[in-house]
Automatic annotation (TrEMBL):
This is Beta-soluble NSF attachment protein. It comes from the Eukaryota. GO terms for molecular function: soluble NSF attachment protein activity; syntaxin binding. Residues 128-188 form a coiled coil. Pfam families: SNAP. InterPro entries: NSF_attach (IPR000744), TPR-like_helical_dom_sf (IPR011990). It is found in: Membrane. It is a peripheral membrane protein. Keywords: Coiled coil, ER-Golgi transport, Membrane, Protein transport, Transport. One of its GO terms (biological process) is regulation of synaptic vesicle priming. It comes from Scyliorhinus torazame.
Length: 294
């Protein structure tokens, strides 16, 4: 059966399901297995949704899953309702990001009500990603990452919480909310430096915290660097720490060339990503008349 055939069949199923729902509301329908009819309608909506998916009609699939979710709620099947809202969200993601968010939020409400915070957190991350890539609303993305981090922390899933918090910190720094970024980088750095498996990442977080300090104030950056070396001696030997010292020196002497040289040398061994490049440029701008990393 080709796609248009699938779509026709799906539309027929939708119409039949709606009839069943209507008849379950009638007096006689209520007497004779109203709930059974709603359950049958539920199944029909889900089947229709999957046919719409095969026909790649994502909006129609999302709508059909939504209808199923609402009937599950009517039947008091919370878990099934949440699952259907998530299915609806995943279908809408391909066609209507805002609708996808609405459905995922509906699922989150049910999961938090049931005390399923880890699953709720996972869906907050999906919403954050839609805000990042589809709707480009960074502040809303940050709010959902923060909520996910909170739920993960409450469930003692610290590494998942840290992942979300690092996203928040990176965006906070981009939005020039340096204090917020510093607090997160320091907190995650401190949490990871004693863990043999994560120790390697800790130097990166202290490096990023120091860069945020540096943009705000050179003296703060110096003091922060001393503090990090004391807390985490392994940081002293890192290339990141050596780079910071060279940059501080170049900045103090207002030597743009020395600053650029140090950055280039570091970049030749560990490629700088977009975030680091942005931060290093912001610092360089405070050296008289310097605006680029060339």
């Amino acid at each position: 059966m080709d796609n248009s055939g699938k779509e026709k069949e799906a539309m027929q199923l939708m119409a039949d399901a709606e009839k069943k729902v209507k008849s379950s509301h009638s007096f006689l329908g209520g007497l004779f297995g109203g709930n059974t009819r709603v359950e049958e309608a539920c199944e029909m909506f889900a089947r229709a949704a999957n046919m719409f998916k095969m026909a790649k009609n994502w909006s129609a699939a999302g709508n059909a899953f939504c209808q199923a979710a609402k009937l599950h709620l009517q039947l008091q099947s919370k878990h099934d309702a949440a699952t259907s809202f998530v299915d609806a969200g995943n279908a809408y993601k391909k066609a209507d990001p805002q609708e996808a968010i609405n459905c995922l939020n509906a699922a989150i409400d049910i999961y938090t009500d049931m005390g399923r915070f880890t699953i709720a957190a996972k869906h907050h991350i999906t919403i954050a990603e839609i805000y990042e890539s589809e709707l480009v609303d960074i502040e809303k993305a940050v709010a959902h990452y923060e909520q996910a981090a909170d739920y993960y922390k409450g469930e003692e899933s610290n590494s998942s919480a840290n992942k979300c918090l690092l996203k928040v910190a990176a965006y906070a720094a981009q939005l020039e909310q340096y204090q917020k970024a510093i607090e997160i980088y320091e907190q995650v750095g401190t949490n990871t430096m004693d863990n043999p498996l994560l120790k390697y990442s800790a130097k990166e977080y202290f490096f990023k915290a120091a860069l945020c300090h540096f943009i705000v104030d050179e003296l703060n950056a110096k003091l922060a660097l001393e503090k990090y070396e004391e807390m985490f001696p392994a940081f002293s030997d890192s290339r990141e720490c050596k780079l910071l010292k060279k940059l501080l020196e170049a900045h103090e002497e207002q030597n743009g060339e020395a600053y650029t040289e140090a950055v280039k040398e570091f970049d030749s061994i560990s490629r700088l990503d977009q975030w680091l490049t942005t931060m290093l440029l912001r610092i360089k701008k405070s050296i008289h008349g310097e605006g680029d990393l060339k």
